[in-house]
Amino acid sequence: MNTKMRLLAVPTLALGALALSATPALAHGDDSWSGQAALNTLNNSGTSGQAMVEVHGTEATVTVDVSGAAETFMDGPFPHAQHIHINAQGTCPGPDADTDGDGVVNTTEGHPFYGMIGTSLTTEGDTSPDSALAVERFPGGSAYSYERTFQLDAETAASLEDGSAVIVVHGVDPALMPAAAAEKMSDLDPTLPAAATLPAACGTVAVSQMGAMPDGGADTGVETGADQGMGAGLSAAGVGVGGLAVAAAALVARRRARA
């Protein structure tokens, strides 16, 4: 396997939330419901975006729009593994998760917050945790729009229902990392740079009955600040239900226009 293909070839469990951690109970309406997440910057990556999950029965359509991500690796698009993480706190890690003091939160440090991989958001083929390492089947580059419909497994659906499902995008440009962290190798594989496996953007999925938006404000569960080396992110007030509603409506309109 060449270096490019090994960029994100890391243990599945180790790969496996900033916005909307105060999630309402799942409301079922004719077995259809939707969920939204604001994907906020982690590890000073500059990566951000929006995600939507639409479920009809056991079928899910996931849409992810990302910008500001790491652009290239060895003259090719930087691959960005992306997953729905489950069965943990249902939040994104804040600066306090940086237990080794290197200015970034690595994958191991973030795992207690967003949890294990429930679904791999691949572009084709398998979407199970077994595909967490399928670098060639994840989007890449500095900006991308992802949309895919697949069968939603029961464990991920349950995590969405209890508010602990988190979408995480991985891969950070090492030029944006603190020097001490940029010089390190990955905590998951000592042959890889740390940048290859760092979480870059993260958001908790807030679910509601199809066509309705969640009530209440957004609790990011993450502290932000310029002196933390973690990136500014978005505050709870900045995210807001109103702003998320606009993003979600745009994603729905785009998906329906394509259909």
What does this protein look like?
The chain has 259 residues and is an alpha+beta fold. The chain has one domain (12-258). Helices cover 18% and strands 25% of the residues. Strands 1, 2, 3, 6, 7, 8, 9, 10 and 11 form a nine-stranded antiparallel beta sheet that branches. It has a two-stranded antiparallel sheet with strand order 4-5. The chain is globular, with a radius of gyration of 17 Å. Mean pLDDT is 76; it is low at 2-28 and 210-252. The chain crosses the membrane at residues 232-253. Keywords: Membrane, Signal, Transmembrane, Transmembrane helix. This is CHRD domain-containing protein. Residues 1-27 form the signal peptide.
Mean pLDDT: 76
> What is the radius of gyration?
17 Å
Q: What's the structural domain tally? A: 1
Unreliable residue runs: 2-28, 210-252
Based on DSSP secondary structure assignment, what is the total number of beta strands?
11
The percentage helix is 10-25%
List SSEs in N-to-C order: HEEEEEEHEEHEHEEHH
How would you describe the oligomerization state of the chains in this entry?
A: single chain
Structural class: alpha+beta
The DSSP helix count reads 6
Cα end-to-end separation:
37 Å
**How many strands, what sense, and barrel or not for the largest sheet?**
9 strands, antiparallel
Transmembrane segments: 232-253
Signal peptide: 1-27
Keywords: Membrane, Signal, Transmembrane, Transmembrane helix
Protein name: CHRD domain-containing protein
